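Reviewer comment 2.1 asked that we show a complete input and output for one of the modelled complexes. We chose the farnesyl diphosphate case, as it is the one discussed in the main text.
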Amino acid sequence: MDSLNHVAIIMDGNGRWAKSRGHIRVWGHVRGSKIVSDIVEEAESLGVKHLTLFTFSTENWSRPVHEIKILFRLLKKFLQKEKKRILKNRIKFKVIGDISQLPLPTKELIWEMEELTRDMKGLNLTFCFNYGGRTALIDRVNLLVEKGIPITEGNLTESFEVGDVDLLIRTGGDQRISNFLLWQMAYSELFFTPTMWPEFSAKEFREIYLKVAKRERRFGMADANDDWMTSAKLARINKETLGEMREV
Ligand code: FPP
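Response of the prediction step:
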């Protein structure tokens, strides 16, 4: 079984979930934020090394101001509530994206948590906040150019705060990657679940993880065990296939 070291999640479906129950959209975010700790805990017990969560995208600015404010508040509340556990479990916490427009106390809390957990060796928990994959890519290219470092696949990969994603999960039923970790998802396994984020659970997370861990990941290569002679012996070779093969 392959280990999926880096799991990234697009926590979608909060608004629809709340509306379908006759509530205001933002209630979905409130309930959705409560699931986050369960997923963090499950990631730790599955032995995941990096968990990256999309908490606010650059496109989310087009939402009503009160919804944006609630998302900001939920981020702060999460950190206040989870601080002790993050430290106890030696989680390394980081926020990537542009946090400049967050209220100062929230920024201070983020900086404090990042500083306190800088050398932690447990789960790497990263929140992508006010984050966009294209902007992140452009920023990194500019940074390398500025430093005179050649633009190579390796240099770019190294320049990002988070590495290649092994598994992307998106809840809420849509099958899109929505400008998330574009560079890092080149070879990710993708899993889309119809479950709305507030109803996602540690159990479903574990099931998805174990199911995907069984997939064979070839990274663009052929099956290592599939050589020509073996396949020819095993395959049903008939006149038609032989004829077509000779044309190549
Ligand atoms: C999409 O739901 C989700 C987000 C915009 C952000 C995810 C935020 C949370 C889970 C709460 C914040 C939690 C923390 C810990 C910071 P949507 O309302 O866009 O879904 P929809 O497709 O139903 O409209």
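The longest helix spans residues 65-88. We note this here for comparison with the apo prediction described in Section 3.2.
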